[in-house]
Predict the structure.
Amino acid sequence: MIDNTFWTKVLAFSEETSHRIGDELLGKFGKLQAVRKDDGSLVTEADKWSDAEIRAAIAETFPDHGVLSEETQHIFPAEDWCWIIDPIDGTTNFTRGIPIWGISMGLFYKGSPIFGYVHFPVIRQSYHGYWYGDSGLTGPTGAYCNGEPIHTSPDEPSMNHIFNLCARSTDVVANKPFPCKIRLMGVASYNILIVAAGAALGGVEATSKIWDIAAVWTILQAAGGAIASLEPNPIFPLTVGKDYGSRPFPCVTASREALIPVFKPLVQFIGDRVCEKYEL
């Protein structure tokens, strides 16, 4: 039976684990060299250490939960409950001494995200949220930063507002005039979280992986925002036994559902390009 005791345990576990690991990673921040993986992303010994620590903590606290991680296990498991983790989201920033990088943990139930926690050690921001969708589950609601409720912005797009890009979507600005100022934070989770917190009105992620969006998908919607796929197929639920290691998830975010039709036509060509390349 899932009750408030379970959700209290989930939140306490996420907070303790991410903060403990974050404190250790601070000592390695800006001091390690990264190597390039086959998919072009970067990895350091700190990523691998963080990955092992999180997986060990999950195994001890939630032994009946599965795990999918950027650095090790890419096959979505058969367990009803699964944690999808990114041990360091923003490895390039981490290695270059740029303070925006975090530890991301998303909890899934039967293939769909329902809880997310992301901790940014240097800037001391921790986000979490709950979103049950049609899972049939109940429990706490809302999205939070450092324990305080957060909400998306109700504003209309203007040149006084921000829209986030990822590194592979910068040609948006060359394609046509855009109704907001453009920013690029270098971290997929943070790009989406500042929409949840009301600092940006939207953003696009061209080749985000499942561990990039697992936690923040929940937090954004819990804060009142919306996220839409830029491919024909629905993202969730994930498929048991499928390898998600190289599978991208192009998507657009907005501070509310009404802005998806405003932003999506401006970035759909990015999704089309990714779908063609990866045969989605």
Notes: The helical segments are 4-26, 45-61, 91-96, 172-175, 188-196, 210-222, 260-278. Residues 4-26 form the longest helix (23 residues). The chain has a mean pLDDT of 94.
